[in-house]
């Protein structure tokens, strides 16, 4: 009986040892999980008033939902490893009177172009990372806050 209480924790400990160091391992509390596939999706960070989502171009086409909670926010969609000849993006909202647009696109060489409207069709002359910046149109009225989605191809 006593042997059972000694062996069970020991066997559990041995089961958590990573036998293959090339596989990804995540520790959650006392539980270790092996991750066999890389994480997919739009990685999200917030820096001040900027909401930044990062995706790989291999994930296109995609649709990302987001929400502005104050009038000074920007949304930056970072698309890595772009190899296609063009990028298209479209902003959708439930309220057609919303003051939201694609302010600019930042190219791999850090040159920028814009502003645009709610739609963008852009020829990508260089391979690399492109950033699509979405925010308020300072030349128009209307509120920025609320939910929106961005479709990118």
TrEMBL record:
Name of protein: Lipoprotein
Annotated organism of origin: Cloacibacterium rupense
